[in-house]
Design brief:
This protein has one domain: Pseudouridine synthase (2-Layer Sandwich). It has five helices and eleven strands, in the order E-E-H-E-E-H-E-E-E-E-E-H-E-E-H-H.
């Protein structure tokens, strides 16, 4: 598949979930790089021997340097219903992050108003009058030698929300130069993982939970030492 392999985490007649790698883009942008949607369509076309164009709806997005679970719709009905779930904040998203400093509390919430600078593709903390409301909850799962392993539950879906809100409390995500990290990660990633997503299936109405594995990198593996994930997650 043109040197890009997609790792499928879940698939049925209406949805497909992919483990996005850092560096992959979800949709085409000005870089001209081929997006995940292109490769997923190739996969669907080949697997189901589909003639002509293949329908694939983008339900949500992940930043290019972020990795983890992302879901797409294979039917227009699934797309419209999932879009509604996201708009109404009925989808539970769980992220893991490695941050440079200890949070002010082991467990807490962050509440801000954010404003996006389109030209710089960056968001900033702003005043209520000109920003969009952003709210997340976090919990410290582990302490590493130089970093802290956090679990984050965003309750809103603002541009770069987790990155800017953590940076605002001096907990910049490892490798995230755009928001003040001390140094980049060797592979160009930032240490932010869309670890789990939970939602009501748009057709069957079953509760679906999809998880990904942590990146095959030593520092991520170190996060799991001494942590009971089922016990310690938010």
């Amino acid at each position: 598949m043109n040197n890009i392999k997609i790792k499928i985490l879940y698939e049925d007649n209406h949805l497909i979930a992919i483990n996005k790698k850092s560096g992959d883009i979800v949709q085409a942008d000005r870089t001209g790089d081929l997006p995940l949607t292109y490769y997923i369509k190739l996969y669907l076309k080949k697997k189901y021997n589909k003639p002509g164009n293949v329908f694939l709806g983008t339900i949500h997005r992940l930043d290019r340097p972020t990795s983890g679970v992302i879901i797409f719709a294979k039917t227009s009905k699934a797309l419209s219903r999932m879009n509604k779930e996201f708009r109404e904040n009925k989808v539970q998203k769980t992220y893991w992050a490695l941050v440079e400093n200890r949070p002010p509390n082991k467990q807490g919430s962050l509440e801000n108003y954010l404003k996006k600078n389109q030209k710089l593709n960056k968001s900033y903390i702003s005043k209520k009058e000109d920003g969009k409301y952003a709210f997340l909850e976090y919990k410290t799962l582990n302490k590493l030698h130089k970093y802290y392993h956090l679990e984050i539950l965003p309750q809103t879906g603002r541009h770069h929300q987790i990155r800017v809100q953590l940076s605002n409390i001096n907990c910049t995500i490892k490798g995230d130069l755009k928001y003040g990290a001390k140094r980049s990660n060797q592979d160009g990633s930032i240490s932010l993982l869309a670890y789990k997503i939970k939602f009501k299936h748009p057709i069957s109405k079953d509760i679906i939970e999809i998880k990904t594995k942590i990146p095959n990198i030593k520092i991520w593996k170190d996060c799991l030492v001494g942590v009971n994930i089922n016990k310690n997650t938010c």
